[in-house]
Amino acid sequence: MNDITLKAAMTEARALVIITRAIKPSLLKIRMNKDSKRRSILFELIETEKNYVNSLIAMDEIYYRPLDQSISSKKPLIDSAKLSQLFGNIDEIRETHESGLLKVMNEISPQLRTAFPPPSVYLKLSSAFIELLPRMEQLYTLYLKTNETADSIVTLLKKNKAFKEFVASAIFNPKAKCRSIEDFIILPLQRVAGYRCLFERILKYFASSDPEVRQSYKNVLDAMIKLGATMNQEKAQANDQEQLLNVSEAVSKKPPFLCLLKPGRRLPGKVSSKFLDENTGKKLDSAVIYIFTDIILIAKKQKGGFFSSTKYVYFDTIPISQIRFSVSPFDSYIDKAFVLKSDTREVHLMMKNNKKRDSFINFIKKAKKSISQKVREQSANGAAHMQKLLEQIASLYTDVKPLRTRDEVLNSL
Question: What domains lie within the chain, and their CATH numbers?
Answer without folding.
Answer: 29-232 (1.20.900.10), 252-413 (2.30.29.30)
